[in-house]
Amino acid sequence: MAVAIDLGEWNDIHPLNKKDVAKRLSLAAFKIAYGENSIVHSGPVYQSMKVESNKIILSFSHIGSGLTLKDGQELKGFAVADENRQFVWARAIIVQDKVIVWSDQIQHPVAVRYAWADNPQGANLCNAEGLPASPFRTDGWR
C-alpha cells in the first residue's frame, strides 16, 4: 500500500499524479519484495495511544528519520472526542517521536481521528523522508 492522500484530486479517487504514486509503490517493492532494509517505504502509521490528563499521546511506526510537517505550518487534520462520541477539531504538536493531541472543548478525551474524511485537505503529518501519514481512527464506533 502507498498512501496518496496528498496527491489526489478532491473530486476523483484516481490521482492524476501517477509518477509520485509509482515512486511510493516502488519504495514498498524495494523494501518488501527485495529486502532493501535501509529504505523508508512508508509514512507514519498509527501504533498506539495513551491518555494523560486532557491530552492523547500518539505513537507511530514507520517514522523514518522522525516525524515532521509537510508544509512547516501547524499540524492539521486531527479531531478528538470524549465518551459522548462527538468529535471536535483538535490542536496537535510533535514532541520527539510522538504526537500530542488535545482540544480545550474536551476535558476527558478517549478517541482521536486523523485525516478521517473523503478529501482530507490540510492533513500534513509525515516523516522526514516526506512520506505522508496514513489516515486513522483510534475508536471503533459506528
Defining key terms:
single chain; about 140 residues; four-stranded antiparallel sheet; 1 helix
Explain this structure to me?
The protein is mainly beta. The chain has a domain of 96 residues: Sandwich (Immunoglobulin-like), CATH 2.60.40. The chain is built from one helix and ten strands, in the order αββββββββββ. The chain has a four-stranded antiparallel sheet with strand order 1-2-7-6, with no helix packed on it. Strands 5-4-8-10 form a four-stranded antiparallel sheet, with no helix packed on it. Strands 3-9 form a two-stranded antiparallel sheet. A hairpin with a 2-residue loop joins strand 1 and strand 2. The protein is globular and about 45 Å long. The chain starts with 17 loop residues before the first helix and ends in a 5-residue tail after the last strand. The mean pLDDT is 95.
